């Protein structure tokens, strides 16, 4: 399964599959990445049954996040 974040009005995608690899998630009963919250200079990511949340920054995020 691909776990990508894609912003359609900009040519941007980010592969998040290494954030918490599926092989490690399955051991804890966690499933897919499906929670995204957008901040002014970062993105918060979590997933179905995840007990973790990640704060991820992208170098050019402010340039396109709030246009």
How would you portray this structure in words?
The protein is α+β, with helices and mostly antiparallel strands and 67 residues long. It has one domain. The protein contains two helices and five strands; from the N terminus they run E-E-H-E-E-E-H. It has a three-stranded antiparallel β-sheet, with no helix packed on it. Strands 1-2 form a two-stranded antiparallel sheet. A hairpin with a 4-residue loop joins strand 3 and strand 4 (43-47). The longest helix is centred in the middle third of the chain and has 7 residues, at 22-28. It starts with a strand and ends with a helix. The mean pLDDT is 75.
List the helices and strands and how they pair.
Elements: E1 4-7, E2 12-15, H1 22-28, E3 33-38, E4 43-47, E5 54-56, H2 61-65
Antiparallel strand pairs: 1-2, 3-4, 4-5
Secondary-structure element pattern, one letter each: EEHEEEH
Q: Helical content, roughly?
A: 10-25%
| Spatial extent as radius of gyration | 13 Å
Q: Span between N and C termini?
A: 30 Å
Shape: elongated
Largest sheet, if any? Answer: 3 strands, antiparallel
What class, by secondary structure content?
alpha+beta
Q: Which whole number gives the mean pLDDT?
A: 75
Number of helices: 2
Given as residue ranges, the uncertain stretches (5+ residues, pLDDT < 50) are none
As laid out across the biggest beta sheet, the strand order is 3-4-5
Number of strands: 5
Strand content: 25-35%
- Number of domain units: 1
């Amino acid at each position: 399964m691909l776990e990508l974040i894609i912003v359609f009005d900009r040519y941007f995608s980010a592969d998040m599959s290494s954030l918490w690899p599926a092989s490690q998630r399955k051991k804890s009963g966690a499933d897919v990445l499906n929670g995204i919250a957008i901040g002014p200079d970062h993105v918060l990511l979590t997933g179905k049954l995840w007990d973790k949340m990640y704060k991820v920054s992208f170098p050019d995020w402010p340039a396109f996040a709030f246009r």
